[in-house]
Amino acid sequence: MFQVPANRIGAQAGWSGFQLKVTQEVITVIVFVVFAVYYLKEPVRWNHAAAFVLLVGAVGLVFWGKPAGKRAIIETPGLNQKEAVKSQ
Fold this sequence. Notes:
Layout: H1 8-12, H2 17-38, H3 46-63, H4 81-86
Helix pairs in contact: 2-3
């Protein structure tokens, strides 16, 4: 269900390799923080929160100045191209 954004859809949407990788790292950190807090029972300290803010800043930085990419069209079996665009 959850996938690394470095996939066909992300690339078709116009994301660069850098954007995909930095976004992947933020998703990975979010998942790990949830695991560390709830399973390992480790507290989140101020420096952990500050590091996360810097990672989110990195995402903003790699997307800065890049115009929105083309919209990805996902083909759905059983729908023709016109119906697929309407369903988005």
